[in-house]
């Protein structure tokens, strides 16, 4: 190729190449109606002996855990916190700006900004464990609900115990004061178990006094029993909607379906408003028999969930996905966010959407995701004896260039840069593909004349 021909090559690349959304990014934007969304979850390195007895082995068998995330303004999974530690029950704050998780072993909660900066201890004494957050749309304030997780056995770290709950104001990445005690069963010998999610007005919380599910009224100090009203007496994972709809669900005994209540106080006498929604059979991938850790996002239309709970009985792999209920809350559609590889164990996490409950809800209702600016930009440079193809960003770990017959051209170079010897290029079309892990994140057509 002569220099003038290379200029044509550059021009055609600029006109013809198309840098695409990642499949996951496209799927999530389709699910959310093009509204920006975020997800965060726990990831653990796979070991054959780590997951042979129960999901709790994620923490008590010495497995190294990190925290990973994905947002619709990004094209690949990103490590949010690479520190090997206990990342328990990560949640995204109502603003979407922070992620909080707890460390039961060291009795503290940790906070980090969504961009990965500003990591610090949030609460390191007393009631450190953050159960959930709440956006009060009247007061325009965010609150955290915390407990001390005292008495939690090593086998139950994913759903820690509590007998006391405090409500603490959260502002600009820090707690304000020591909070107010809103729940106290300290004299009981029978602890409650996480999760514990709160309604948007702070009046109600979904509680698990296993195997009994309750909706607790923080004002009257009274609980409404939800277990058994649908004929399933061994329930778990109660969820109160984050708005003021008082919608409520809990898992069935088999961990494959949700008991959905249009309102927590409309019980089995109205079958149209209390129903079983099949979940496990609709999760992306193979047919699964169960799942774990369902959690309302900051919108009652969306949830996150991990699966399978047991799978084939050996806990080989785990996936994390998000889902959307239909308008009548009779069905749900799911998108996998994790990368479908047996090399990792993806576990419980949280989802956030821009038009959900939070300080930005009013402006986000009309907003749409605009991820194009964050897409990788292909650059081609003529060097001495070769052409260099490079991609912006730090998302891509492998790539290849093939001709239309499928022959792969030998390339060399550093991360995000691939060098092609001039004598390997001939007139014709070439396909450039970049990948991150096992996910294809960029495909472009290159024309050489």
Provide a descriptive summary of the structure in words.
The protein contains four helices and 31 strands. With 449 residues, it is mainly beta. Strand 17 (236-240) and strand 18 form a beta hairpin. The longest helix is centred in the N-terminal third of the chain and has 14 residues, at 3-16. The radius of gyration is 24 Å and the shape is globular. The model is unreliable at 1-21, 51-56, 311-316, 367-375 and 393-397 (pLDDT under 50).
Short description:
The chain has 449 residues and is mainly beta. It has 4 helices and 31 strands.
Present the secondary structure layout:
Layout: H1 3-16, H2 23-32, E1 37-45, H3 57-60, E2 65-71, E3 78-85, E4 88-92, E5 98-103, E6 108-113, E7 120-123, E8 129-136, E9 141-147, E10 161-162, E11 164-171, E12 174-184, E13 192-193, E14 204-209, E15 212-217, E16 222-225, E17 236-240, E18 248-251, E19 257-261, E20 274-278, E21 292-296, E22 302-307, E23 319-325, E24 332-336, E25 344-353, H4 361-364, E26 378-382, E27 386-391, E28 398-403, E29 417-421, E30 428-436, E31 439-448
Task: For this entry, give a set of tags.
mainly beta; 43% strand; 31 strands; 7% helix; 449 residues; four-stranded antiparallel β-sheet
Shape designation: globular
Q: Please estimate the helix content.
A: under 10%
Question: Could you tell me how far the N terminus lies from the C terminus, measured between alpha carbons in angstroms?
Answer: 8 Å
| Class by alpha and beta content | mainly beta
Strand order of the largest sheet: 3-2-1-25
| Average pLDDT metric | 78
The description of the largest β-sheet is:
4 strands, antiparallel
Radius of gyration: 24 Å
């Amino acid at each position: 190729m002569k220099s003038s021909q290379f200029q044509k090559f550059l021009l055609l690349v600029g006109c013809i190449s198309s840098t695409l959304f990642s499949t996951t990014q496209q799927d999530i934007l389709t699910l959310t109606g093009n509204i920006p969304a975020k997800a965060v979850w726990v990831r653990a390195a796979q070991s054959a002996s780590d997951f042979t007895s129960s999901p709790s082995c994620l923490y008590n068998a010495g497995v190294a855990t990190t925290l990973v995330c994905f947002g619709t303004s990004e094209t690949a999974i990103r490590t949010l916190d690479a520190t090997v530690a206990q990342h328990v029950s990560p949640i995204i704050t109502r603003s979407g700006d922070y992620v909080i998780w707890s460390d039961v072993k060291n009795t503290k909660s940790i906070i980090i900004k969504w961009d990965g900066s500003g990591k610090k201890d949030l609460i390191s004494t007393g009631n450190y464990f953050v159960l959930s957050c709440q956006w009060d749309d009247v007061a325009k304030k965010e609150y955290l609900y915390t407990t001390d997780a005292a008495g939690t056995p090593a086998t139950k770290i994913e759903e820690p115990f509590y007998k006391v709950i405090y409500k603490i104001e959260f502002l600009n990445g820090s707690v304000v004061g020591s909070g107010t005690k809103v729940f106290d069963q300290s004299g009981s010998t029978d602890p409650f178990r996480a999760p514990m999610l709160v309604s948007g007005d702070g009046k109600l919380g979904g509680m698990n006094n296993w195997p009994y599910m309750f909706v607790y009224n923080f004002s009257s100090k009274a609980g409404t029993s939800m277990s058994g009203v649908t004929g399933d007496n061994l329930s778990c994972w109660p969820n109160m909607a984050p708005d003021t709809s008082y919608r409520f669900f809990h898992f069935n005994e088999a961990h494959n379906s949700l008991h959905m209540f249009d309102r927590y106080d409309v019980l089995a006498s109205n079958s149209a408003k209390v129903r079983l929604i099949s979940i496990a059979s609709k999760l992306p991938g193979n047919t699964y028999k169960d799942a774990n850790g369902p959690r309302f996002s900051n919108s009652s239309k969306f949830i996150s969930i991990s699966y399978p709970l047991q799978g084939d009985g050996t806990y080989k792999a785990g996936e994390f996905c998000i889902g959307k209920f239909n308008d009548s809350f009779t069905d749900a559609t799911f998108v996998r966010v994790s990368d479908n590889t047996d090399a990792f164990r993806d576990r419980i996490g949280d989802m956030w959407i821009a038009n959900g409950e939070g300080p930005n809800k009013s402006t986000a209702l009309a907003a749409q995701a605009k991820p194009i600016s964050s897409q990788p930009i292909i650059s081609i440079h003529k060097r001495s004896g070769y052409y260099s193809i490079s991609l912006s960003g730090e998302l891509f770990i492998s790539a290849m260039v093939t001709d239309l017959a499928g022959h792969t051209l030998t390339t060399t170079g550093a991360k995000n840069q691939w060098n092609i010897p001039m004598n390997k290029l001939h007139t014709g079309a070439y396909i450039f593909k970049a990948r991150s892990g096992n996910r294809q994140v960029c495909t472009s057509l290159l024309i050489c004349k």
